UniProtKB/TrEMBL annotation:
<comment type="similarity">
    <text>Belongs to the plant acyltransferase family.</text>
</comment>
<dbReference type="GO" id="GO:0016746">
    <property type="term" value="F:acyltransferase activity"/>
</dbReference>
<dbReference type="InterPro" id="IPR051283">
    <property type="entry name" value="Sec_Metabolite_Acyltrans"/>
</dbReference>
<dbReference type="InterPro" id="IPR023213">
    <property type="entry name" value="CAT-like_dom_sf"/>
</dbReference>
<dbReference type="Pfam" id="PF02458">
    <property type="entry name" value="Transferase"/>
</dbReference>
<comment type="pathway">
    <text>Secondary metabolite biosynthesis.</text>
</comment>
<protein>
    <recommendedName>
        <fullName>Transferase family-domain-containing protein</fullName>
    </recommendedName>
</protein>
<keyword id="KW-0012">Acyltransferase</keyword>
<keyword id="KW-0808">Transferase</keyword>
Length: 454
């Protein structure tokens, strides 16, 4: 189960938020969001959707609490991360896990099992109101959303809140999973697509002794450095500009004056910067496997129709393999270009189909996920949500009752979020060296949340 917290520097009408989300879920196709999770005889999850949503069987579980103090006077909420103005250095704040008491109320489902054996809807909405700010929390299973699925949901929610139901896109996959047959090759045309070309990194799939070596090394890393801390990091816009300039300079030096400089995005540079910080904090150089989660809706055009909403978890990955020497010696720009090349070459429709086909084969054969890496490498996982543009897309201005932050230095428009984070409710999460790029705020600062060794 995941919990997503949104901060608004305005006072919002909590009932309007609940009513509009409920109205969205009542739209044909979108009703799946109000379904009840069940386990079928094949031990597969399925959704049971009520014929009608009622107060007894609601579309969403809603709770609301009000504190008659400014957010800055609340002992916990006052510690929520804030951008450091006029700073050129990254700032590190408390991790998102420290704020779970604000987001999770008594009775909120905390595990998938809590949903399976109750009549609770998948989504829980909790609103925390202060005299000058509002926190909006959404709790639900990770099977329901990925980054772009969440983007589609909040964009549609904002449209309903504004009375623009005609802007809500049709929901596809409301009664069936459009991704269920991906990579299976059960039909002739899908079989051809799934095997159109071999997966580029198929030779790096870990099996047998190599997989045992990788697992043993990972267990040793956990034993040697058992503590993992979640931290929220703010990268100021001025630092990002410096990093981009450095990456450009590195690439100019590599390719020379006569060749075109490879394109690298802000995300590539940011991910490389963090990768190098993690790699060079190790006691000795090690190979690195950089795993970038990528969305597939816009890339698998033969499967997902443009203009339709697909709200489910549809995340796969692109892998960049770096030797110990490369991780230790290559420049910021050169590694960023390697990461960009990996994403570009591995996110074609043919490559995604080949990867998914191989992944399904591994699941059928062993019941475990595909691992692509060198046996002795350290894995670093990134999820970049900037494409979802949450700071821009979420617009709850129709629910604003009163402006909270009235200072002249405010850069966030009314009804837009000034900060957000996402956290797992699992008490046994083993994630480490995992970073979510939460996106770029209205001041040009990038926000990240990472589970890292202290």
């Amino acid at each position: 189960m995941m919990v997503w917290t949104l901060r608004f520097d305005d006072v919002l009408n909590a009932s309007k938020l609940n009513d509009s989300l409920w109205r969205l879920i009542e739209i044909d196709g979108w009703r799946k969001l109000g379904g009840r999770l069940r386990m079928n005889e094949s031990k597969k999850l399925e959704l049971h959707i009520p014929k009608e949503f009622t107060p007894e069987r609601p579309a969403v579980r809603f709770t609301h609490v009000t504190f008659t103090v400014p957010i800055g006077d609340h002992p916990l909420a006052s510690q929520l991360p804030k951008a450091t103005l006029d700073s050129h250095k990254p700032t590190m704040s408390l991790g998102s896990d420290k704020f779970l008491p604000l987001a999770v109320r008594e009775g909120t489902p905390r595990t998938v099992e809590d949903l399976l054996y109750s009549d609770c809807p998948q989504l829980s909405l909790h609103v925390t109101s202060f005299t000058n700010a509002t926190l909006v929390h959404l709790v639900g299973p990770h099977t329901l959303f990925d980054g772009m699925g969440t983007h589609m949901c909040v964009r549609a929610w904002s449209a309903v809140l504004a009375g623009k139901i005609h802007q809500v896109p049709p929901m596809s996959g409301g009664t069936s999973d459009p991704a269920a047959s991906l990579g299976l090759g059960s039909e002739p045309e899908k079989a051809a697509k799934a095997t159109e070309e071999p997966y580029l990194l198929a030779s790096k799939q870990l099996k047998g002794l190599k997989l045992f070596h990788f697992t043993l090394r990972s267990l040793w890393d956990k034993f040697r450095r058992p503590n993992v801390e979640t931290r929220t990091i703010c990268i100021p816009s001025s630092l990002l500009q410096t990093l981009q300039a450095q990456a450009k300079q590195d690439l100019e030096k590599q390719v020379g004056e006569k060749s075109e400089i490879p394109f690298v995005s802000e995300g590539d540079v940011l991910i490389t910067y963090l990768t190098l910080l993690i790699a060079r904090a190790q006691s000795r150089p090690r190979p690195l496997t950089v795993y970038n989660v990528i969305e597939v809706r816009s890339r698998l055009k033969s499967v997902f129709a443009e203009g339709s909403a697909y709200v489910q978890n549809l995340a796969f990955g692109a892998v960049t393999l770096l030797s110990a020497s490369e991780a230790s010696n290559l420049s910021l720009g050169v590694i960023a270009a390697k990461i960009r090349e990996s994403i570009a070459t591995q996110s074609t429709e043919a490559q995604l189909m080949a990867f998914i086909h191989l992944m399904r084969q591994e699941l059928d054969r062993t019941g475990k996920f595909l691992v692509v890496s060198e046996p002795d490498a350290m894995m670093v996982v990134f999820t970049n949500w900037q494409k979802a543009r949450f700071f821009d897309v979420i617009d709850f201005s129709p629910a604003v009752v009163r402006t909270g932050d009235t200072s002249k230095r405010r850069v966030t428009p009314s009804g837009k979020i000034s900060y957000h984070h996402c956290e797992s409710l699992s008490e046994n999460s083993q994630f480490r060296n995992a970073v979510i790029v939460l996106g770029k705020d209205h001041g040009g600062n990038y926000w990240l949340s990472g589970a890292l060794n202290p």
